[in-house]
Every structure is written in structure tokens, then in C-alpha cells.
Amino acid sequence: MRLFQRTKSIGLLAAAVAATALVPLTAGAAEAAPSGYAGSCPTAGTITQGWHSGHDGIDIANNRGTPIHSTGPGTVIVSGTASGYGQWIRIRHDDGTVTEYGHMYERLVSTNQRVTSGQLIARMGSEGQSTGPHLHFEAHSSTSSTRGMDPVPYLAERGVRLPCTPGSTSPGTNFTTWGTSVRVRSEASLSAAVVTTLTGPTPVYVKCQKRGDMVHAEGYSNDAWSYVPALGGYITNIYIDHPDAWLPGVNPC
After folding, report:
1. Of all helices (H) and strands (E), which one includes residue 2?
2. How far apart are CA 240 and CA 16, in angstroms?
3. Is the dihedral of CA 129, 132, 133, 139 positive or negative?
4. I need a labelling partner for 244 at 20 to 30 A (CA). Which of 11, 20, 115, 159 fits?
5. What does the DSSP 8-state code read for residue 148?
């Protein structure tokens, strides 16, 4: 079945791309690796207030003591007390963005500590200006940002859909690889360094896709590559288990 579904000419692929306005990068266009990280769910609960002009983040309510997790890898730049928050934590992630966590009753990380995506960093409380146990979560473009961005699309771009459950199978994962010895490369090029090798079918969250080297494998030819932030590299779309050579619903890098 896979052989039949994947059999399509490059000409038909180009037509499909044009029809959906997914235009490949032209020669000479910048092809920097996309920013961002593979995200993790910050906490379980109910969103009781969203992001708006008078509220820089989102509030996620749950019981006192509910675990709070770092949404991505980075360095703790603040862990302490703060007016309004009672206690707060700020993490600068590897892509330069900053996430902020407030109102917890217990902090489990310290300033300058390195954290991983999904690491337990605090427990939910109601300290500071709060009417009940909840996490106030903010996302900022940089350490110099004074106005938080909407955390919902920020997390969605990193594979996390709210509401979410920490530790569940990657809520942003939307494809599965197939085959064995699938090489993940640092760029969309056959000469790029191999970051890792997948030994079998693997769930992956694809952040974006772009044109790269033409690959001839398993009886197919395709120049589309998918960027998987959790793996830190690109996989030829030949090994993404989907009948379309250019993945639907995935933006160009």
C-alpha cells in the first residue's frame, strides 16, 4: 500500500506545491536552521484566563502542589521571590526566548541552573496576588522583552497544544517515520553531518519542511526534507509515513 501511495512524479509534486502556495526556497535564499525547541507541557489544569491587553500570559488552575515543568531546555535566570508573584522562575531557552512561571509555593531549581525540556521545576501554589492555586505562565521573545507574547501559539509552534498533560506522548507529534537506519542530518543535504539514526518507526513532531538535496531511496525520489526539533535535524520526507511527498499542514522552513 505504501508503494502505491508514494508513487508520484516530481512534476505532480511541484504542481501540488504551487496549488497550495507552498513555494520552495529559491536559489540563494537564506536557509538558516529554524529557531525553537521541542516543547513540553508546563502543567496540567484548566485555563482560567487567557492572554490579552491587560494580562501578559495565561493562567492554568489546578490543585496546590500540582507539578510545574520547564517547557524547554535552557538556563534558569531567575528563581526567587517577587512582588505580585510571591515566587517566580524565569528560564532563558536555547533559542533566546524566555518563559516565566509565577505563584508557585515551592521552587525546585536555582538561578544559573541548567534545565531540560519537561524537567520538574516547581509546584503550583497561590502566593502573591492570587485568588487560588494556579500557574501564571508567560513567554517572551528575549530577556529584554517587557511585554509577553501569547503563550498559546508560542507553545503550539513547539508542539504543545493546551490544555496538556505533562509526560504524555508528545502532544505535538503528528507523524511517524518508517524504515530502519533512517539518518537525521544537521541540514537538508546528503553531505551534512548525521545527528542521529532512527532504528525503526518513530513518532516525530515536524516543525517545518524545506527543499534540499534530491534523495533517491526505497524506489522514490524527493527533495523535500522535514525538520524535527526534538532530534535537532532533518529527515528526508521519503521516510515520513505519509502518502504526500510534501507534507500537508506543515509550513516551509
Report:
1. helix 2-6
2. 18
3. negative
4. 159
5. P
Instruction: Spell 63-87 as b/e; 16+ CB within 10 A means b.
Output: eeebbbbbbbbbebeebeebeebbb
In this structure, the chain runs to a length of 253
CB atoms within 10 A of CB 151: 25
The tens-digit pLDDT sequence of the chain (253 residues) is: 233 333 333 333 333 333 333 322 222 222 233 346 878 899 999 999 999 998 999 999 999 999 999 999 999 999 999 999 999 999 999 899 999 999 999 999 999 999 988 889 999 999 999 999 999 999 999 999 989 999 999 998 888 888 888 875 443 346 889 988 999 999 999 999 999 898 888 877 787 889 999 999 999 999 999 988 778 899 999 999 988 899 877 778 8
Element (H, E) at 11: helix 10-19
Among the listed residues 99, 41, 90, 36, the one whose alpha carbon sits nearest the alpha carbon of residue 66: 41
Query: Distance (Å, rounded) from C-alpha 32 to C-alpha 121?
Result: 32
Q: What is d(CA 240, CA 222) in angstroms, rounded to the nearest whole number?
A: 11
Q: Which residues pair with 216 in a beta bridge?
A: 221
Q: Quick one: CA torsion of 215, 12, 28, 34, rounded to 10 degrees?
A: -70
